[in-house]
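It would be a great kindness if you could assist me with a short task in structural biology. The matter concerns a single protein, recorded as an amino acid sequence and a row of backbone structure tokens. Could you please explain, in whatever detail you think fit, how the structure tokens follow from the sequence? Thank you for your consideration; the sequence and its tokens are set out here:
___
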Amino acid sequence: MQLSVPQRYTRPAIFLHWAVATLIATNLLIGFTFDYLPKNDLRPMIDAHKSFGITVLGLAIMRLMWRATHTPPPIPPYAEWERRTAHWVHWVLYGFIFLVPLSGWLHDSAWKGAAGHPMKLFWVIPWFRIGPIEHLDAATKEYWHSLLFTVHSTLAYALAAAFVVHVAGALKHQFLDDKPELQRMWPG
């Protein structure tokens, strides 16, 4: 069966999609390995994790602005349940793409060691912590640090699940349904 030529996303949308997806996948892998890293390697990996997270947040803002000003190609004529699921999963992913980095930034801002370890993106660019959280008293800060860790890690697992559902749907359409799904978002 010959695949029809799909309606494609714009080049900026494709770039933002793959940049965010790559950084999220990398950051999930980094985050899920923290417990297995030697103590000397942990702090540099946490700093990289923070840098990737803030970068994802910035790219997500750009992506949402692009999406708000550029109409995406229509969802192909799949079954109605598949179209609704695709629409729902995309908006759930957008939510997690914002909530995971924001919760991590809040968590980092409540870290008791923050004053002795200024945040720098990719070890170079000074970055700020969220003032109202950073300036709490020590006991309140510790409470929020613990709570926000739980929120951040729970959201990260949910993001990973939504990520898997999104990829599985795209692969199903491409290879089982023989539809040109990947061509709509593939670079080139």
